[in-house]
Amino acid sequence: MFELTGRSDGSSKFAPGHRWGFFPSGAFAWNLHNERFFKPILESEAINNIKIRASYGLIGNENVAPYLWQESVNTWGWTMRVPNSNFSWEKQKQWNLGLDMNAFKNRLSLTAEVYHKNSYDLIYDQFAVPPLTGSYTLVSAVNIGAVENNGWEVSINWSDKKDDFSYKVGAMLFNNRNRILKAGYNENDRLIFKGNNDQIWYKGIPINNYYGFQSNGYFQNQQEIDETAAKMPNSRPGDIRYVDQNQDGLINDNDRVYLADPLPYYNYAINIDLHYKRWDFSALGQGVGKRTGRLAGQEAYPVYVDGNSNDLGAPRVEYVADHWSPENPNSRFPRLWTGSTPNTLLSNVWLSNAAYFRVKSLQLGYTFPSIGKSVKNLRIYVNAQDVFTLTKWEGLDPERIGSGNGNYPRMATYSFGLSASIF
């Protein structure tokens, strides 16, 4: 099987002369089990069908607000957005290789895939430009940088039946690695995001990275603070001691470094279905094998911070149990505090292992074939969702890593139900 596609898309969101893009693609697949040389294997039923496939294509992205290429001014006549007459489509080149197979009298099914994505001319609508008009918020929408994603995915299922017992077991595992190829117009450019100093792009690191300060323990006493030249103002015993990366005697933005990748790796899921006579049981579990999360907001800081980072306070058990004090100098977390503090800056102190395994659902049911003349297939079941989670994450929920301002962890839910056909 062979397929070629060519499409031309236009969008008025882009500048005149750059509104149209041509995006071709091609795909190839081969059913090997239909070939004559494969007949002996089919007759042995070791493999029932097998297909290999490949594809390559170029696609475009126009998922942006309209008319970002135009100049915009505020009500006072200040220019807020500089026009860009070259603003155009974001583009992505991608290839895929895949395998689909059934084997052992169709009891085993397997799907495997590997892919590579190269995204370029990325759209960034908050690119800061020199304030030529005197406006300190001057921005422009540009096509800038390139990012690649490499990944693979495998899913496998096994099913069988013997007498009154049948079962199906399945598993899925996939992984994706992201890397910035170019952050600006040149390979060595760096891009700091407007309104988010904790995120920076440069060649070789993943997008949405953690970029902050490296810690070197906590200040233990006032003498240690006085003898340290590079420190934050108003430092107190129990505060984070940041590393002076450039050895200039100051702690500032120049001392921030790449800390970690927040993206999840080795995502997996496992499902089981069992049937014995009129009984049925199903289970689903899923998780992430490797991930680094950031503790922030109410999930990280003690009682009160500053009305911005955390205006309510919901200290975690982990913080209360292992914060700095003269009696606990080798603690996991810094001292307890209220009010503003440099301890809330992004650093490796607030990064935590967010890998987990969670039992998402368990269900047990029993079916009565008939009750009287009117009720058929009455099934009674009990169900449990989010039963338990295995993790070292120090926040509330490793599946919902975000702002850190959640008040409650995910709760387990238990239910009882029935279903039937009437008449």
SSE inventory with pairings:
Blueprint: E1 2-10, E2 20-31, H1 39-44, E3 47-61, E4 72-73, E5 79-81, E6 90-103, E7 108-120, E8 123-128, E9 139-143, E10 146-162, E11 165-182, E12 191-193, E13 196-201, E14 210-212, E15 215-218, H2 222-226, E16 240-242, E17 257-260, E18 265-276, E19 279-290, E20 292-294, H3 317-321, E21 351-353, E22 356-371, E23 375-385, E24 389-391, E25 413-422
Antiparallel strand pairs: 1-2, 2-3, 3-6, 4-5, 6-7, 7-10, 8-9, 10-11, 11-18, 12-13, 14-17, 15-16, 18-19, 19-22, 20-21, 22-23, 22-24, 23-25
What does this molecule look like?
With 423 residues, this protein is mainly β. Helices cover 4% and strands 49% of the residues. The protein has helices spanning 39-44, 222-226, 317-321, and strands spanning 2-10, 20-31, 47-61, 72-73, 79-81, 90-103, 108-120, 123-128, 139-143, 146-162, 165-182, 191-193, 196-201, 210-212, 215-218, 240-242, 257-260, 265-276, 279-290, 292-294, 351-353, 356-371, 375-385, 389-391, 413-422. The strands form seven sheets. Strands 1, 2, 3, 6, 7, 10, 11, 18, 19, 22, 23, 24 and 25 form a 13-stranded antiparallel sheet that branches. Strands 4-5 form a two-stranded antiparallel sheet. A two-stranded antiparallel ribbon has the order 8-9. A hairpin with a 2-residue loop joins strand 10 and strand 11 (165-182). The longest helix is centred in the first third of the chain and has 6 residues, at 39-44. It is globular, with a radius of gyration of 29 Å.
